[in-house]
Amino acid sequence: MRNLFNFIVKNVHWLLFFLLIFFSVLLIVKNNQFQRSKFLSATQEMTGSIYSVSSSFQSYMNLNSANADLLKRVAELETELYTVKRTLELSSDSVQTENMKLDSATVFIYQFLPARVVNSTVLQEDNYLTIDKGSDDGIEEDMGVISENGIVGVIMKTSPHFSIVIPILNSKFKLSCKVRYNNYIGPLVWDGKDSQYTYLTELPRHVDFAAGDTIVTSGYSAVFPEGLPVGSIVSFLKQRDDNYTSLKVRLFTNFNTLRNVLIIKNKYQKEQRRLQETINQ
Amino acid sequence: MSDWRIKQTGLFILLVFLQVVLLNKIHLFGCAVPLLYIYFILRFPVNVNRNIVLLLSAAMGLTLDLFGYTLGLNLLACTVVGFMRYYLLKLFAPKDLFASDEPSVRSFGKNLYFRYLSSMVLLHQIVLFSAESVSLLDPYRLFSRIIGSSILTIAILYAYENINFEGHRK
Known about the structure:
- Chain A has helices at residues 2-10, 12-30, 38-58, 63-93, 97-100, 104-107, 269-280, and strands at residues 110-120, 129-131, 144-146, 151-158, 163-167, 175-179, 185-189, 197-204, 214-217, 229-238, 244-251, 260-266.
- Chain A has 281 residues and is an alpha+beta fold.
- In chain A, the strands form 2 sheets. A 6-stranded antiparallel beta barrel of chain A has the order 1-2-5-4-3-12. Chain A has a 6-stranded antiparallel β-barrel with strand order 6-7-8-11-10-9.
- In chain A, strand 4 (151-158) and strand 5 form a beta hairpin.
- Chain B starts with a helix and ends with a helix.
């Protein structure tokens, strides 16, 4: 007994080593998109506030290009507003306006909330973003996040003042998208290499696609409305071993300089999900 | 006696801050990331209890995991390095070393310190990047990331150590 005890005391470093290895492997294995450790949400407030300080310094550097983007967006919206106003004016003159009036509820299905990116990674195989809006601002898990150029990702976890976004640049993230030209739908998957490119996979082999076509969201998931721009086709490769084509897609969002994002709130997301879940039960 | 504790605490905070705010965003040639926080593990005095070194290395890894949202990866790599440090020291430390010395160019000499440094860094990066790419295995990319990051990290740390050494000599 005494010998055994001595042996353990002598070799306690081995015990400690295997314990730590076991713990870390456990964390790596368990740590997927849906069952994040409780651990993170406790420390997220602290790491988030440190990141927001460091990003407020960095944001000065990008003010020029951010302003240019915003001005461009303002111009676009201005044009759109003008067109819509004009249509409304025209329709109010005619007699059949009663039928054409839009139900106010359908117009406001989607709401947009602005937020700022306080931390982001683009270099790893599983990247995450932190934004400075949280559950106190009405952010919930599974809301969509877009930038002024295209889609960014989905809210994965929230704390009172910060949220973590799982972006398209994460090998665990799949999003249903379609080719705008011919409406073929497939999952968008990142290969973990270049933050500018991703792949639209599982498209039928017999169809030809043209470089330069736009990829948009399919609207199947209730996270994003249909038709948000994602990227454009660069090239397509037919896989040897199966019956599918993959498209290489250049993303419209530049994750390296991403600073301002919009969060999409879908009023009926829960309702749609609940309905879809009833089928599976 | 408490001297090294204060030094290591300062080093811990400084390296975590540097790594999180600045270094994690550097990505030279698409493959090289400087991972300087390993300097914390390199720097323990030779006679510090190996269990303490192991636990503190693990703490370093866990802290970086919390900031990078990559739970477990850095913890795994730092645990392995913190554990192997004892054996690498046995291999590379000169025989006439004072037990309370920190491993440095001054106490080891240029040649031995370089070997100690590069084997620790290489070990760390091999474990880290292999664990990271388990889900998406691409040997060429894995290899280039390990080599690129190791070269960059070793170069920076070795240069820093030498500058430090020259500074002390004057």
